[in-house]
Amino acid sequence: MLIHFTLNAKPVAVDVAPHDLLADVVREKLGLTGTHVGCDTSQCGACVVHIDGRSVKSCSTLAVTLEGANVTTIEGLASPSGQLHPMQQAFHEQHGLQCGFCTPGMVMSAVDFATRNPNPTAAEAAAGIEGNFCRCTGYQNIVKSVIAGAAAMRAAK
User: Fold this and answer.
1) How many independent structural domains does the chain possess?
2) Are residues 6 and 72 in the same domain?
3) Where a domain ends, among 76, 111, 133?
4) Which of 56, 60, 112, 142 could join 96 via S-S bond, C-beta 3.0 to 4.6 A?
């Protein structure tokens, strides 16, 4: 079936099967490979994207449910001129990544969290990303990144 939605501020139409998952459609049919699939069980969070501004795990979201939706992937966070989103910049400056595999999903979750909690404590920031797993770091710099990103998002308003 043909579905129509907005992807990173651009209208798209894509033919999907009833069982196609959003992660697969974004990566394989639309060529945006920033969304990662790490576990295939909706546990790791590497596949997080935003649908209508809210974080969802795209590896467990059926693409047919997207008709008319607004989807943002990690590729859609930066400005059209290439300026990083404040949360992306914070992850860079605070060294909130190592191998980078989990980073797109982590950043997407952090943006949604910071939108709802613009001035988090360290404990709140850690809880705000609890659906995302990083196998490389001890989370200290990720939590610092979320706090710094939230502050930068507040300042940008």
Assistant:
1) 2
2) yes
3) 76
4) 142
